[in-house]
Amino acid sequence: MKNILFLFVLFFAAGGMAAQSTLQVVTKTVQKSIAWKSGYTVEINCEKAEIDVEAIPAGNNTVTVKADLTARHPQLDSAKYDLAAWKFVTSTVGKKIYIRAYIGLPSGRSLPNSNLKAKITVRVPMECPVTLTNKFGKARLEHLNGAVRLNGEFCAFTLVDLQGGVQVESQYGNVDGRQLSGQVELQTKRSAVALSDLNGNCNVHSEYGAISVAAGAQTGNLYIQSNKGDVIVETGSLPRHNINLFATYGEVKVPSKPHFETGTSGNTKQASLQQGTGRPQISVETTFGKITVQ
Amino acid sequence: MKELNHPTLQAALVRLPHYEPPVGVWESLDAALALDAALGDSAQQLPTYAPPTAVWENIAAQLPTARPVARRVNLWTRYAVAAAVAAALFGAWWLLRPMTDMNASEQIVVTQETMNQQVVAAVQENEDDAFQWVENLCASRAPVCEEPEFKTLKSELDELTAAKQNLHTALGQYGDDPDLTTQLVQIELARTQLLQEMMQMM
Amino acid sequence: MSERELIQGCLAQQRLAQHALYEQYKRAMYTLAWRITNDWELAAEVLQDAFLLVFNHIGDFQGKSTLGAWIKTIVVRTAIRRAKYRPMVFEELDYRSDLDTVDWGHALDTDYLEQAIQALPEGYRAVFVLAEVEGFAHKEIGTLLGISEGTSKSQLFYAKKRLREQLGAVVGKNEDTRI
Predict the structure, then answer these.
(1) Predicted confidence (pLDDT) per residue in A122-154, tens digit
(2) Fewest beta carbons within 10 Å, which of A145, A221, B10, C127?
(3) How distant is the Cα of C30 from the closest Cα of chain B, in angstroms?
(4) Does A110 touch chain B (CB under 8 A)?
(5) Is the pTM for the entire model greater than 0.80?
């Protein structure tokens, strides 16, 4: 009898575990089109969101937004109830179009148990400047000609073909940028940074994060300041830049050709490659980090 | 007026810098908020005083004189006024209504997903006792906790612990996001390294 | 701490939440206050006054706009109110300038642009910052500054004309080197 009771309990326990591993996913999909005029900017402000910002060809004066707001919970009723916590707002104030997805709770209501996530796709005219903030998620921006300004916490950024200049402030979110033109400004903390195909000047200020930058033929002045993080600069075998490297409490590693002047001053190791005036500059300063040029 | 190449101006304006306010601003705010909080209760208990009668006389002297008593209005006039008010209200709403959405649609669907238990298990791992041990040690004001190098490590550890807690809250009970979980693991590795450095100082 | 948690914390008058909210917006709002007042000390006072208002009225925030936009309006109103202690100056316009064209060229130097904005007369600077930097509509600017929508438009044009004149040489020199 005891054995039967044990099997009975085990059966229900196993059933419970199986139910636990299946989540009910309730998704609310909202689609909106917002009138856009030249001179308008788009400000996206989200949390727990995976955001894609894509360009639509010039001449199409509409911003479109598709938001999939989800609540995931083993119990369908709980997921449905928690879905109501998602607030999605779009509004136009002056020349700014605001797109906002956030978790709003009526006072007195506790945090939802469900796992809440959003997937937001914003399509903007190519020349439209975009400002975006996001926490706990990721953001991908592609093929934009307007200025881009980003602020993230636990948000990984993927930036591809942005022509109008980029400003990024990121904490705990890696930044991967390719084909960036105009002034590129990055301020990061505990985030890895990887940049390639830079077509303008670039400044990176980083704390606790590895930085890797490929400086090509189109790259202008590059300035990297890193605290407690390693820096790798890829210049190829024939760098066109003048290069100055300073590693305080760190190391400097440079190729044997072309020849770098190296030296040490106090706790700082230095290396320099000067190929004549008028060339763009690469300047890297690290504290407690290794600099590698390859 | 004609304006050419306006996007150039816009692009430059977006790049304008932001500036850090002086530290004193928060300190003053903090003091003002503390004062507000302190006054909050006591203000309710303060006595009230009657103003001099001349105050009301001065106010009354500046008010317009009373209107003559309204004549009785017939029913049709009342309907007309009501209709005009309704039309005006509708007009005001029409003018002020949100104009942002050219069109909008909304739908809700339910699907099922299998939760990635392996990822969730990584999120739900219990905190190592050694972290709490360091907390207790510093709470008891152990001399090592007052050393500058230890303090720096502890403040870094606190920052990472706060970040870990934020991530935990964001992931919740059913969060199986591999990217956020990877970040959580990286934070945990950094915390462990800090803990080891702190242990070596003891 | 998410924005929702910040708001709830501020509603409960938790100092940590208030400080976190202040930290999140202080730079943008201080910069905005400075661009309107052109006075670092006054900007700090504006920031303080505005955040006291924010904390005391956070219950009024309905979530219809972003929290940042709501705080921004409070900062603008406070800055304008404080700047009015030194009355805003609106210079008379030379209406012949309506025939002029303002051309921004292909590149502007941010540093010089910042300096040129600060060199604008007070009233024009406020209109320019509100319209071009912060994206307010002329109707909203009119209400904020106590001027007509038309005046806001004409002041903006005049501000742009002045700005372009000041940037003239600089734009030409730096066009190819700074983007």
Answers:
(1) 999 999 999 999 989 999 999 999 999 999 999
(2) A221
(3) 6
(4) no
(5) no
